């Protein structure tokens, strides 16, 4: 069930003693868990597959297991981070992913093992998945990719490589996985689509099968902040309004870097910081007015607004995005602020055509993992 990794690092003697103490603590911890299972208490086994892993000295607190009605919360040492399990929806006769023990008995993610925003967003997207079926069908049927809220053609933005023959790719926050389908059509050997919403993935599975691409697509019900994949597993990673919008950038960007090969590319399309500071307090429309501090951008919680409750979104000022990419180990190869056509009209999501002609609602980052 659980796996524990103890990295050997160049620490001072105090760190070494702390490291040894941590090993003893977690060995005892998992022994107690095994004892609990041997005694058949609680009657139904708790979710398995929890992995403790090192994460750049970050100290975190998570609910780790439950013994009966007792919820044990462990404040971990700075050498460890909890990695929650990911559940494969279906291998779909294609490449398989690592599935946790007893996955069939745990059909949905365990909310107690996730940060609050992940649980909120899972509920939000599962509840509105039916509203995205039609858009997913249209994108899967498209003969050429188009991107963003104003449907910019691929020939203008060039988010994907011209050919992806021989590549392994991952879509971070794939939704109905239409972009995964586009990558397969460009020749990708294997594509993994990970998403927090099981309902969205059911649509993705149906459409991949309908379009004859299921054999090269693996759909994973999970959190893009903790990807169940080996280091350097992918040549290319993409997030279009997926992880870039719904995951904490200080977590998911490092995770994307980890699963990319040296020289691999990460392409991101998401909300422009200017849009985020101009969104009205209810999140309905961007206005020609600043509604929140630019330098305070990080977490935008729309779950409590009265008119149209949403999920928890994320963003950063440009300077912090750049610093994060560089510190993580990426080179910035390109940046685009797409401008809509002059004849565009109407409203797309939270941006009117009039607002979008004067201000960019979205932006594109093209990154390369340093060798």
Report on this model:
The radius of gyration is 21 Å and the shape is globular. The chain contains 11 helices and 19 strands. The strands form 6 sheets. Strands 6-11-10-9-12-13-19-16 form an 8-stranded mixed sheet, with helices on both faces. Helix 3 (133-141) packs parallel to helix 5, helix 3 (133-141) packs parallel to helix 6 (198-210) and helix 8 (249-259) runs parallel beside helix 10. Helix content is 30%, strand content 24%. 37% of the residues are buried. With 371 residues, it is of the alpha/beta class. The chain starts with a strand and ends with a strand.
Number of strands: 19
Helix content: 25-40%
Unreliable stretches: 1-109
* Structural class assignment: alpha/beta
Radius of gyration over C-alpha positions, nearest whole angstrom: 21 Å
What is the element string, with H for helices and E for strands? Answer: EHEEEEEHHEEHEHEHEEHHEHEEHEEEHE
H/I helix tally = 11
* Overall spatial form: globular
Widest sheet: strand order?
6-11-10-9-12-13-19-16
Strand content: 15-25%
Largest sheet: 8 strands, mixed
- The average pLDDT is 77
Cα end-to-end separation: 34 Å
């Amino acid at each position: 069930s659980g796996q524990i990794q103890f990295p050997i690092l160049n620490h001072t003697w105090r760190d070494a003693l702390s490291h040894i103490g941590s090993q003893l603590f977690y060995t005892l911890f998992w022994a107690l868990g095994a004892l609990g299972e041997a005694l058949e208490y609680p009657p139904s086994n708790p979710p398995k597959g929890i992995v403790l892993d090192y994460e750049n000295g970050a100290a975190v607190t998570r609910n780790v297991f439950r013994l009966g009605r007792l919820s044990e919360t462990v404040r971990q040492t700075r050498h460890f981070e909890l990695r929650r399990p990911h559940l494969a929806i279906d291998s779909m006769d294609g490449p398989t992913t690592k599935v946790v023990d007893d996955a069939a008995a745990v059909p949905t993610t365990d909310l107690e093992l996730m940060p609050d925003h992940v649980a909120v967003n899972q509920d939000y997207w599962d509840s509105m998945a039916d509203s995205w079926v039609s858009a997913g069908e249209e994108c899967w049927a498209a003969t050429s990719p188009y991107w963003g809220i104003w449907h910019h053609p691929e020939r203008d933005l060039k988010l994907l490589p011209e050919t992806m023959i021989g590549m392994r790719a991952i879509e971070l926050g794939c939704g109905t996985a239409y972009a995964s389908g586009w990558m397969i059509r460009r020749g990708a050997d294997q594509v993994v689509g990970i998403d927090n919403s099981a309902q969205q993935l059911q649509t993705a599975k149906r459409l991949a099968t309908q379009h004859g691409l299921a054999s090269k697509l693996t759909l994973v019900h999970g959190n893009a902040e903790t990807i169940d994949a080996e280091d350097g597993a992918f040549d290319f990673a993409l997030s279009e309004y997926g992880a870039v919008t719904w995951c904490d950038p200080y977590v998911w960007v490092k995770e994307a870097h980890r699963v990319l090969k040296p020289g691999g590319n990460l392409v991101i399309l998401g909300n422009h910081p200017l849009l985020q500071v101009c969104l009205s307090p209810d999140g309905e429309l961007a206005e020609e007015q600043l509604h929140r501090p630019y330098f305070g951008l990080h977490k935008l919680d729309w779950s409590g607004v009265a008119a149209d409750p949403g999920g928890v979104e994320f963003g950063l000022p440009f300077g912090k995005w750049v610093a994060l990419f560089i510190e993580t180990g990426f080179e910035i190869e390109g940046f685009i602020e797409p401008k809509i056509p002059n004849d565009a009209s109407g409203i797309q999501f939270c941006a009117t055509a009039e607002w979008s002609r004067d201000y960019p609602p979205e932006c594109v980052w093209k990154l390369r993992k340093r060798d």
